[in-house]
Automatic annotation (TrEMBL):
This is Exopolysaccharide biosynthesis protein. The chain crosses the membrane at residues 38-61, 73-93, 160-177, 189-209. It comes from Inquilinus ginsengisoli. Keywords: Membrane, Transmembrane, Transmembrane helix. Pfam families: ExoD.
Length: 221
């Protein structure tokens, strides 16, 4: 019988209290679960009220690296559902079965976690609840709106143009998971950088189009 999803808290032997578990701990438990495949629904259940940030990170992080053409569109589609719901203030994340039923072999998931976990654990040592003014019911809606825009940018066919938006979403995600306003600040800075890059690319494309039309038609635009 498959293991139950890992819980959000765990007893702390030192204090006798229950503590909130780290993202990397939940991932490792999922990777070690006695099942053949890991579905998006399993991740959703495992992270509970942190599902927004957890799934944003799962779908955004791969886009921060060079990937085959079309990958950003596949991974970006679930981000549209997630970030839209964060923007409108939903307290519980809902995803269609078409997404939640998607799964990968547990062995493949375990290999991915083995590569990610050491980096996550290093980052988690730096992350902690702080600058909480930047995180909350109202602030989270603004974060959701920014991430929705970034998710749309991921769909644009811009060579390597998905990396900065993905980094921004990932920073917002870890900020939401760990309630760390510093990480959220990094997300806002990366969002500004992504917007600047998009504006620069758009201006360059428009200039190239004007030059082409002027040469072709002999008119000034």
């Amino acid at each position: 019988m498959p293991d139950a999803p890992p819980t959000e808290t765990r007893d702390d032997p030192a204090s006798g209290e229950r503590r909130r578990r780290r993202f990397s701990e939940v991932l490792r438990d999922l990777a070690a679960a006695d099942r053949e495949r890991i579905a998006i629904a399993d991740i959703l259940a495992a992270f509970g009220d942190r599902a927004f940030g957890a799934l944003m990170l799962v779908f955004a992080a791969p886009n921060a690296l060079p990937t085959p053409p079309g990958t950003s569109s596949v991974l970006g589609a679930p981000l549209l559902f997630i970030t839209f719901q964060l923007m409108i203030g939903r307290s519980v994340l809902w995803l269609p079965r078409l997404i939640t039923n998607r799964s990968v072999a547990r062995a493949d998931f375990a290999r991915l976690v083995d590569r990610m976990a050491p980096w996550l654990e290093k980052a988690e040592r730096l992350l902690r609840p702080r600058l909480t003014l930047l995180i909350g019911p109202v602030a989270d809606r603004f974060i959701g709106a920014a991430c929705l825009l970034l998710a749309v940018i991921l769909f644009l066919p811009i060579p390597l143009g998905n990396m900065v938006p993905a980094l921004a979403i990932a920073a917002f995600a870890v900020g939401l998971i760990e309630r760390d306003g510093v990480a959220v600040s990094v997300g806002w800075a990366a969002t500004a950088a992504a917007a600047g890059i998009l504006v620069a690319i758009s201006a360059a494309l428009w200039a190239a189009l004007r030059a082409f039309l002027q040469t072709l038609l002999g008119v000034t635009i």
